[in-house]
Design brief:
Length: 633
């Protein structure tokens, strides 16, 4: 869990430490939609002519819709158009949960009106948030002129969210994609392999609107712009995929070139590379519970792998044909090596691990308690509404889920206090299940609700949380951090505030929280008003660095970065604070989807490349391995 939270922190390090939920609606539509204007002539007649031309252009190009989207990233828009044609257009800007913004982050779409060299005839400044009155989606009607517009996000800290929109005269509809050809040059042997190196040159042609860009992808990595011939000078097999886009937005079908490079002297003198992977259930100390399975994989770019061998705990080497299963309690070391068809033998490697006895079976169900709050009359009935809060605890394997059943309607998952506001008697039953499958005996509470104030309070409170403390250059808090939570409610008033630190058990908030434990942390918070309305749970993520403390005391130290069923072949080096690349990637974390994991790995790889920890080639290999892995599927 520690490494999981640390990697999530790295992915969202640029997010502000102040979170407000829910967002209050804007005072005017202009605050969200921005104000749009076009330069006009000085005379009324000229202005009228301009208006008529604009209206005519709008009618002719009503189907030109340009869409920008944003998500939880602060470094780039999720999607943005690159080109458009002159004339009327509908601009759509969406920053919502549907476009990937699941943390309530605000973004703007702002057109630059001051930087020299760009068109300045459109003023557009749209602020959008997933929780605003429009759900984060806005439209604006504009008239584009030939040239280039520069756009950006005006939120502080989002300065890399910038791009250009190239507008051209309408040449008539171009629906034909460019044609791209690849030419591979170099000395070849009798088998067609390139000796020493191969150079791949790409050429694109488009008879319509013209070629806008050419891109290529090497060995399944991300597409990058093609600027000059690609030189492949390391022995091995390569897959180079390429495509082109024209100025009308037509994209050619990807083509592929397969290239094999062999050593220039023709002799294979390089030993194979062997990668181990140890799998199994881990306890809190990093030991394998019951059994550990050792998988070995070997690659050789020259003559190919001939054999792989292993030795367990100092025994003689034996051929490796299937994964090695170790179920004897104690510490073990598996030594391994590989031989290629040219007779080169790799230096022995080793993997050391510990196997422990399985823990005793948990047969004790969780305990659940219920608390009913609300205004009561002299007879004990609740006036207007009653709020039922449930708390479950399990000393064994931990609580997995809590459920409730109101008036026999069937059990539902309990995620927040249950508000009962229908006049009459009610019975709420509840139960909990632990991670071993033990289910508690149902408990129940009986209550009566009588009529309350008219109209009732149905508006959620507004809650916010803020983290304070001394930070280093990376935004990590030094030694400690102080969390302050505030809430307000303009109708029935705030009843109480709750928080959950690094778990899902909510506790009542009574004052600032000082956190001193090193590493990444996640704090959830919510507020309940006196009418029982509960805010959406907010989340605050931060990290604390303690002097002399390893940020990843239980570290993934495998030689290469493994993501599920895929080996990225990237060396698993220490990133400078005791954490390896695999710790930051966190392939064993609880990912909500495969693409959430891929986005996370992309952000980690980009940051490591920017920090100089890895090269661009290794960055592409990490992202490609994430895409091909089964993590989050």
């Amino acid at each position: 869990m520690f490494r999981h939270r640390l990697s999530r922190l790295l992915a969202g390090a640029a997010v502000s430490a102040l979170v407000v939920l829910p967002l209050a609606p804007a005072a005017t539509a202009a605050e969200y939609r921005g104000e749009i204007s076009s330069e006009r002539s000085a005379t009324p007649a000229a202005a009228e002519a301009t208006d008529q031309a604009a209206n005519q252009a709008t009618d002719q190009a009503a189907d030109q819709v340009l869409t920008w989207t944003a998500d939880a990233s602060v470094s780039e828009y999720a999607s943005a158009p690159a080109t458009a044609t002159a004339g009327a257009a509908t601009i759509v800007f969406e920053n919502s949960a549907a476009t990937g913004n699941n943390i309530g982050m605000s973004h703007t779409l702002t057109f630059d009106t001051s930087t020299p060299g760009y068109n300045h005839d459109i003023t557009l400044d749209i602020l959008a948030n997933p929780f605003d009155a429009n759900g984060g989606r806005y439209e604006a009607e504009v008239v584009l002129t030939p040239g280039t517009y520069r756009y950006f996000c005006a939120i502080p800290g989002h300065s890399t969210m910038v791009g250009e929109l190239v507008v051209t005269e309408d040449p008539g509809e171009d629906t034909t994609a460019p044609v791209v050809t690849a030419d591979v040059a170099g000395q070849q042997d009798a088998d067609g392999a390139y000796i020493g190196s191969a150079t791949v040159s790409l050429t694109a042609e488009d008879a319509g609107s013209g070629v806008a860009s050419v891109e290529y992808s090497l060995d399944g990595g991300a597409y990058v712009p093609y600027g000059e011939p690609v030189v492949l000078d390391e022995p091995g097999m390569y897959m180079l995929e390429y495509r082109a886009t024209d100025n009308a937005g037509n994209v050619s079908e990807p083509e592929m070139a397969h290239v094999t490079v062999v050593p220039s002297d023709g002799e294979d003198t390089t030993a194979p590379t062997v990668t181990p992977e140890v799998t199994g259930e881990l306890d809190d100390n990093g030991a394998y519970v019951g059994t550990a399975t050792v998988n070995l994989s070997a690659v050789d770019a020259g003559s190919g792998v001939a054999s792989v061998e292993y030795a367990l705990d100092g025994a003689e080497y034996a051929p490796y044909t299937d994964p090695v299963v170790v179920d004897t309690v104690g510490e073990h070391t598996v030594t391994y090596r590989a031989t290629d068809n040219a007779g080169n033998v790799s230096a022995p490697g080793s993997a050391t691990f510990t196997v422990v006895e399985p823990s005793q079976e948990d047969t004790t169900p969780p305990s659940v308690t219920a608390e009913v709050t609300g205004e009561q009359d002299a007879d004990g009935a609740y006036v207007g509404s009653a709020t039922v809060s449930l708390l479950a605890e399990d000393a064994g394997t931990g609580v997995k889920s809590v459920e409730y059943n109101l008036d026999g309607a069937g059990y539902k998952a309990y995620t927040a206090p249950v508000v009962v506001d229908v006049t009459g008697p009610h019975t709420l039953s509840y139960r909990a299940t632990d991670n071993s499958g033990n289910v508690s005996q149902p408990g129940k509470v009986d209550l009566v609700v009588v009529g309350g104030a008219d109209p009732p309070d149905t508006t959620q409170p507004i809650a916010s949380a803020q983290v304070d403390g001394e930070q280093d250059d990376d935004g990590v808090y030094i030694d400690s951090a102080t969390i302050t939570i505030n809430a307000r409610d303009g109708e029935s008033g705030v009843a109480f505030i709750e928080y959950a630190l690094d778990d899902f058990i909510f506790r009542e908030y009574t004052g600032p929280i000082v956190v001193t434990a090193g590493g990444a942390h996640e704090l959830g918070y919510r507020a309940t008003d006196n009418a029982g309305n509960v805010t959406r749970t907010g989340t605050l993520r931060f990290s604390i660095a303690r002097e002399g403390i390893d940020a990843c005391p239980v570290s993934d130290e495998r030689p290469t970065v493994i993501m599920g069923d895929v080996d990225s072949k990237v060396a698993n080096v220490d990133t400078g604070n005791g954490c390896t690349i695999a710790d930051l990637v966190d392939a064993d974390g609880q990912w909500v989807s495969h693409w959430a994991f891929v986005r996370h790995v992309t952000q980690v790889a980009d940051q490591l490349r920017a920090d100089g920890v890895i090269t661009e080639t290794k960055r592409a290999k990490l992202v490609n391995a994430a895409k091909r892995s089964d993590v989050g599927r």
